[in-house]
Structures are given as structure tokens and as C-alpha cells.
Amino acid sequence: MKNVTASMAGTVINVLVQAGDQVNAGQDVVVLESMKMEVPIQAEADGKVAEVKVHVGDFVNDGDVILVLE
Amino acid sequence: MSKQLEQTLKERIAQVEQGGEEKYHAKLKEQNKLFVRDRLKLLFDGEFMVEDGLFANFTAGDLPADGVVTAIGKVNGRTVCVMANDSTVKAGSWGARTVEKIIRIQETAEKMRVPLIYLVDSAGARITDQLEMFPGRRGAGRIFYNQVKLSGKIPQVCILFGPSAAGGAYIPAFCDVVIMVDKNASMYLGSPRMAEMVIGEKVTLEELGGARMHCSVSGCGDILAANEEEAIQAARRYLGFFPADYTKEPPVEAARPPKPDARDINEIVPENQNTPFNMYDLIDALVDEGSFFEIKKLFAQELITGFARLDGKPVGIVANQPRVKGGVLFVDSADKAARFITLCDAFQIPLLFLADVPGFMIGTAVERAGIIRHGAKMIAAMAEATVPKISVIVRKAYGAGLYAMASSAFEPDACLALPGAQIAVMGPEAAVNAVYSNKIQAIEDPQERQAFIMEKRREYQQDIDIYLLASNLIVDAIVPPSELRGELIRRFGVYGSKRQIFSERKHPVYPV
């Protein structure tokens, strides 16, 4: 299991993957809005999405788990 | 003189040059490490090498060269001084002669005004010798004193091949750049064993002070190399951007066009201010092909720092990376910028700022971390830099982010803008919210409210229109994106004669 975490505080504006999807390292998985900027969050490793922990509109802090990879 | 004397000498030289016992050489191989003299062969051009102190501590019998090689050689055809620990001799630890040799090569580099390279692989002080090597006037402290004194006079480069422990960890800390070999290099004040004994923490060496940690989290490392050969090549490449000392000009190479598949800048930079793009694409489109050499690539990635060549001439680039954390400036990115700007300014390397910055980060976490004083550090370093400096507002520069990226008030030689650039205290969304918050709340009909917001944003856009800013002489030129490289080359060319003393005084009171 590997966690993908938020790189900075912000609001989730787009979730680009769902549980079961195969993702590659470097792929955008969630987009945050912070400081009026779109901030894409990337998977750091290849893997299958086990669980998406956030919904559009959620506030996340730096380091919060966004999704879990198998 | 009898031939026998010469014969004996040659045998003794050969013996010392073999370093420590065979079992320690075998250990090097296990660790994917090279013997110190093989490292020097890779570092230097050809065979040329001048060495002092080969017979240091010879009479001790088991301490060849007292565990350190100090030598003068050539890198890229230019003279450099080197100190290199030999970890086959008492784990590269420092005795009295070791320290004296290091101090002497520092003095030599200072007198000759050439770069000094530290090849570090050492367990630290030899406790048994501490009275002789630790506390005195020419004890180990003197090495650090000299490093501080040499800083900014001559380039000081550290390659870390193994541990750099306790006091020894300050050698890299006082160098301009630290190249670390992944898995083998480490820096720490207290070892994992000591951490467990003294504070009760259980931690691996890699987590505590490994190369990857230092290059991505602490910022004590600048370049993470996969192996020793790569680390040594990185040092050679790095030195290719630097003059021998601060009074000379950085070396010029043959000019090359940007890489052939570099994209059109109009395509790279999105019109929408909030959409991320990859700043590396813009750098590729501007600089000579293959010339970009990044510093602190893994650390505070929302800001990019690195050397490159424009028409063959070295330039230091400080660029926001909108692809990471929106390109917002944080505590670490401010530190990274401050350090890099100071490095370029010390050695006559012109600075190019590529600004696309929403500002400094806000919120509890960064305020508690002292983002104001870290931001002040970056702004101070940038303000003080008297090398030719050009600021390009690529897309937007808001708030103190504008100041930090060398905008007009900080005496860049030019503040240039691309035609879509926006410069303001804050972006349109935030500004309209700030100014009209009460009015917006008071409008009950959602459609009407949205229409009001859009109208105010449009008005705001007009107020910060780039032609209005050029009309008020706030930017010096608006540059067609397709002509930006040529414009930068021409401008850095004419600014080359710039000589300026920033301010007469002893030294500033640095924000830290």
C-alpha cells in the first residue's frame, strides 16, 4: 500500500481516478485549488487505486492522504 | 647518490599509494565505492597531478598519507586543488597530519585563486588524537574557519561518497554545492546508534541522514548522483560554469541553438492564469541545447534553480514551477532561491528570473515556519545581486512574489514581460473578493451576483493590462514570446560590462 498525499493545503476541485484504476508514477490523480491556482497532485509510484479518500469540495492540508495505491 | 636510495623511495611511494589494508579495499568494492586514487583519476584530466604530504605520518607505519590525499590537478583544462579522504585508512578519520594537510591545501587554493574540491568519505575525528587535531589554532576548527573565509572567493565543491559525521558534516555545509552518492553518502551530527542512546530514537542511517533525504527534504544536498562516476562527472560539469575565482569571468563555450524539439513558447504558456504548465519546457525553449544543469532538483520543486548557457555564456536561472504547488513560494523555495542567487552573484554568473508566481504561501503552517523572514532572505539576496540580472514576467507575478522575482524596484537591468503577463498586488479573483466582499454578499440573486463579479474582474484586468504597465514604464519591454531567447542574448551581451557596488558598509544584517 502506498499513500498519495496533498503537497499543500487547498480544496479538491477534481478527482481524476477512481478505485480500481491503474495509475503510473507521475500521473495526475487529483487537482487541488490553492492560492487561486490549479495544483495537480501526481501519483509517486505505479499502482492500482485501492481507495480515493477525498471528494470534490473537501479541504485538505499538506500531507493529508488523498488516495491509497495497492 | 646510490641507486638503492631511489629504489627504496619508489617502493615506499608505491606502498603509500596503495592506501590501507587489502580487507578495506575489498570492503570498498562491496559498497560500490572506488579507491580514493581512482576517484582522482576520474576527476582530473589525464595523468596530471601534483601531490604534497604523501609521507604524512609515514613513521606510524599503518597510516598511509594519514588518510587523506591533497593534490593539485586539472579539470576541464583548468587548475584545481583537491582534498580527498581515504576510507581504507582508519575509515578516513582525521588525525593531526590529516588536518594539517587539509588546512595547507586550503591555503594553497587561496593563494593560487583556484577552486577547491573536497572528496569526503570520513568517519570524523580520530578520538585518540583529539588533543593534537581538535581544539587548537590549527586544529579541525581551522578547516571550517578557512572554508568560511574562502566562501565566495574561490568555488568550493563537495562530493560526498560516504559518511560525513559529526564535526566533519560541516565540510559539506560550508561548500557552495554538495553532490551526494545515493545509498552511500550520509551527513549527520549524531549517528543512529547515538540517536538511540541519547534521545531514544530508533532510525536507519538512510532515514536519519541519507543522501536522498538531504537532497529532497533537508536541503543540505544539492545533487543526488546514482553512483560515484556520475557524482564526479557532475562536479566536472558544475565547474564548467565557474571562473577560477570571483575576480574572473565565467568560462564561455561554443554557442548552440535550443534543442530542436523544444516547443513554441506560445504553446507552452497557457493563457488562463490558473492553469499549470511545465516551466522546464520554457527553459528548454530558451537555453542552448543540453546546457541546463539543475541545482537542488529534488528540493522545493515549486522553484527551479540551475545553470545554463545562452549563446554559450553561463547564466543562472531562477524560475517558478507552476506545475508544482502552483509555483507558490514556500519557506524552502525561498531558501533555495536565496542560496542560488548568492552563489551566482559571488562568481559573476548573470541571473535570469522567469516569473510565474501567485505569491508567497499563506496559512498557519507557513506563518509558524517563519515564511516572512525566509521570504526576506530571498528578497535580500536578489536585491543585493549586482551581476547582470533580467526578470521576465512570463505570465503573472502577484504580491511579494513580484518583488522576490527581481521586478522593477530591485534594479534588474531589465524587467521584461510576455504579452499575456499580469502584474498586481493579487490576482483578479482574490482582488475582487477583497475589495467588494460586502457588496457581493449583499446581492441576493445568484446570477446577478455572478454578473457583478465578472464585471469587476474585467475592470480589474483593464487596470493591470500589460500595455498600461509598459505605458507607465513599469516594465521595460513587452517581448514577443518567439523572440525571447534572442532578446535575452542581446541584453545579457550589452549588460556584460556592468560593475556595481551595491552598498558601502561592513556587511548587511542578514535576514535568516
UniProtKB/TrEMBL annotation, chain A:
Residues in Lipoyl-binding domain copies: 1-70
Acetylation among keywords: no
InterPro entries tied to this protein: Biotin_Carboxyl_Carrier/Decarb, Biotin_lipoyl, Single_hybrid_motif
Gene3D superfamilies, per the entry: 2.40.50.100
Name of one Pfam family that matches: Biotin_lipoyl
Top-level division of the source organism's lineage: Bacteria
CDD domains per UniProt: biotinyl_domain
Keyword terms of this UniProt record: Biotin
NCBIfam families: PRK05889.1, PRK08225.1
Protein name as it appears in the record: Acetyl-CoA carboxylase biotin carboxyl carrier protein subunit
Organism: Brevibacillus thermoruber
Automatic annotation (TrEMBL), chain B:
BP terms from Gene Ontology: L-leucine catabolic process
Annotated coiled-coil segments of the chain: none
GO cellular component, one term: methylcrotonoyl-CoA carboxylase complex
One GO MF term attached to the UniProt entry: methylcrotonoyl-CoA carboxylase activity
Residues of the CoA carboxyltransferase N-terminal domain: 2-254
Xref: Gene3D superfamilies: 2-enoyl-CoA Hydratase, Chain A, domain 1
Domain CoA carboxyltransferase C-terminal: 247-512
InterPro entries to which the protein is assigned, alphabetical: AcCoA_carboxyl_beta, ClpP/crotonase-like_dom_sf, COA_CT_C, COA_CT_N, MCCB/AccD1-like
Protein's name according to its UniProt entry: Acyl-CoA carboxylase subunit beta
Source organism phylogeny: Bacteria, Bacillati, Bacillota, Bacilli, Bacillales
